[in-house]
Each structure stands twice: as structure tokens, then as C-alpha cells.
Specification:
This protein is mainly alpha-helical. The protein is built from twelve helices and no strands. Helix 6 (86-99) packs antiparallel against helix 7 and helix 9 crosses helix 11 (183-195). Residues 199-223 have a biased composition (Polar residues).
Length: 231
């Protein structure tokens, strides 16, 4: 299990590489599919949209489903997002992406959408710019901030700064495999490490998983490297 203060580069790499396996071990096929959308498909869509990047209402709904499935399920938040207009989501997300690297301003734009707070906004922004934007997961917050679970803008900015610093520290460690280790990679490695102790389920049948290649086992930063109070 990798600790936030750890300088063991092999431990960080191992934790990130185990992300997909540990996600699957939770026994939630829907989460696995949503995670593939979030980590692989969505960054590719945003890359194609280039300077005019935005997300749709349908994509925001999937991001919320991913976030809630990976953490604590809160149907009320999903209902709010499901009732947003596509135009409003596109407008707010365009403004948010254009505001980067100013995290405070970017989150403020997304927070105009009902049901979207700093945590959900961080998930949206991390898909666009993983180098500096980590998702505000409970597991990473506990590891980086010592047990704090406060979903305010102030705490998120502190959290993001700590993970950015850790990202640069690992990039400058001299290990070639960590030269592009992003702030989002730090978050996923911490989540993966925490997932080691989460209750696991044994799939009823493994035939389906053997018949198809599984994107969730790939190292999580691959797609993101192509690109430069609610919770």
C-alpha cells in the first residue's frame, strides 16, 4: 500500500498499474464500463474538440454515474444532472475548460450547474487536463489531507496543489516510467492503494472477460497524455 509521503517510485508505479484490476475486483461491471468511458473514451472526445472543448449533458451524466459508482451513491445528485439542459452543460463546460489552468475559475463555471460542486467539477476537468487536475476522491483526500472529507472549493484547491507537487516530485525522481506521472495518476494510484482493502466480489463467470480485451487493466494515464454545497 503506497502512502502519500512515500518516495518509493516502484510502489507508485505498482499502485497505478493495479488500478484496473482492483476496480474489477469490486465486482461492478457497470463501474468498469463507466471507468473505460471516463479514462479512455472521454479524453479522446475532448481531444477531437480541441480548443472548443466541451461536454454534453449525456457525458456529464456518465461522469456523475462514474463518480457515484466509484464512491458513495447519491441518487439526488444524479437526478439533478439528468434534468440539466444540454445547452447549459455545453456552455458551462466550454467556459470551464477555457479558464484552465485557473482551477478556481474553472470550477466556478461548472458549479453553476445544479448538482455539480467541486468534486464533480474536478472529475470533468481531470478528463480534460489530467496533468494538473486530480479528481477529488475520498480515498485520495484521506491520503493527502489526513482524513479530511470537506468538499469545499478551498479544500479542493489545497488538495489539488498537494497532488500537483507530488506529481512533480515523482516526475523528477529519475525513474523514466514516472516522467509523465500526472496529478490524476497520483489520485488513481492512491485510490488503487485504498482499494486493496475494499470488499471484493468474485465474478459469477469469467467467460465474458476472457473473450474480450479489457481496457481497464491498462495503465490509466495513456489517453490523458495526449492532452496537454454539492460534491
Amino acid at each position: 500500500m503506497v502512502e502519500f509521503a512515500s518516495t518509493d517510485t516502484r510502489a507508485w508505479i505498482a499502485a497505478l498499474e493495479a488500478y484496473g484490476q482492483r476496480l474489477e475486483a469490486l465486482g461492478n461491471p457497470k463501474l468498469t464500463a463507466l471507468d473505460t468511458f471516463y479514462r479512455v473514451e472521454l479524453p479522446e472526445l475532448l481531444e477531437k474538440r480541441q480548443a472548443d472543448a466541451y461536454i454534453t449533458q449525456e457525458e456529464l451524466t456518465k461522469i456523475m454515474q462514474w463518480k457515484l459508482s466509484r464512491g458513495k451513491w447519491r441518487s439526488r445528485l444524479l437526478n439533478f444532472v439528468a434534468n440539466l439542459s444540454d445547452d447549459d452543460v455545453r456552455t458551462a463546460s466550454r467556459k470551464a475548460f477555457a479558464a484552465l489552468p485557473n482551477l478556481k475559475e474553472a470550477i466556478a463555471h461548472l458549479s453553476t450547474l445544479k448538482g455539480v460542486g467541486p468534486a464533480t467539477a474536478s472529475a470533468v476537468l481531470a478528463a480534460h487536463t489530467p496533468s494538473i487536475v486530480p479528481f477529488m476522491s475520498d480515498e485520495a483526500m484521506v491520503a493527502a489531507l489526513g482524513g479530511v472529507k470537506d468538499y469545499s472549493m478551498k479544500v479542493y484547491l489545497l488538495f489539488a496543489e498537494k497532488l500537483q507537487v507530488k506529481s512533480k516530485e515523482l516526475q523528477q525522481s529519475g525513474d523514466a516510467e514516472l516522467e509523465q506521472f500526472t496529478a490524476s495518476d497520483v489520485e488513481r494510484a492512491l485510490w488503487s492503494s485504498a482499494a486493496e482493502t475494499m470488499p471484493q466480489k468474485t465474478p459469477k463467470s469469467s467467460n465474458a472477460s476472457r473473450s474480450k480485451p479489457n481496457n481497464s487493466t491498462a495503465i490509466s494515464r495513456s489517453a490523458g497524455q495526449k492532452r496537454k454545497k454539492w460534491s
